[in-house]
Amino acid sequence: MKMSPRFRRSVLRTYQLALNFYPAGFREHHREEMLRCAREILAQSASARKTVCLLAEDLVRSLFVEHVAMTIARIPQLAILLTLTTFIAGTAYLISQQVLRMSANDPQIQLAEDAASRIDSGGQAARVIPDRHVDMASSLAPFVIVYDDSGRPIASSVTLDGKIPAPPRGVFDFVRSNREEGVTWQPRPGVRIASVVTRSANGFVVAGRNMREIEIREARVFRLAAAGWLAVNFALVMLWLLTPLLGGGQALRLQATA
Amino acid sequence: MTLRVAKSKPKPTPLTPAVFHILLALADGEKHGYAIMKQVEADGGGFLHMGPGTLYGSLQRMTAAGLVEEIEQSDDERRRYYRLTGTGKQALNADLVRLRRALASAREKGVSIIAGTTSK
To answer: Which residue in chain B is spatially nearest to A258 when comparing CA positions?
Structure first.
């Protein structure tokens, strides 16, 4: 089938439009020459169908090849960006988690130090603990336990399974020489306690509270950080994929050095 | 142009068909894109067609690899010409030697080549 001038013009126009899908650098450098070649092929073609098929097949194949080549050459760039965003999101999460965890000890520090001070001033252990007795597993209220110098409980505002729990071994020895220590303590699976242990006259004061709410907040912060990380990385990958189509000469330089 | 077997160590062969045919098309002198396409078609006996996308993509990578180079033409500035570099000539020589060996080996095994097809 012989090609009419009108059909030739419309094929050329379509080809010209399709050239916009090449990476920007490649397009800038070769567009005119490719168009000129296509024009000459069409002008000298004896078979319209064969020529259009040749141009279309070549276009699809080379678009794929050029984009793959460009993408492979730019993978290190993406890896650096993703590493950076992961580091930033990870650092932001760790800082938030530490701030939450440290602030979880604030009421206990005050409670333990006040109770120790009152005992040091001659107060009785039973009178320095809060009036309200709570269950360690279910209540979020802060509690106080007073131990003697050998680590036996003297007074407590908390129980767990009907007993007064004891903090991990070695904590009292450490506090004996260091005055105060913050301890995250798990008296039973599923029950985590943020506690502060303080030295008092002839004994120790432990003030603590259940970490359930803090851990819920930590999980929320983690979800926020992960969602932010995903959103930023999705945007970065999209931008990274589209840059060769929108960008300028830099894309070509990147490809040429691949 | 006379092609001689390179004395220095050639680039790793075989070349891809597109690269081989572009190097072969440029073996007798510099050409612009469309002329390379026509030459490739002629060298392939009319069975080999190379479109503009494949041609310019290959030329870009070949230029980066130092196999061909762009040259400026004062008579028609808009048209870009390409020619073989020393490395390009070596690569083409090495591939032709490989093909000659393969052809010799085929003949030794009694494979006869008849008009675009092979039989034994």
So the answer is: B64
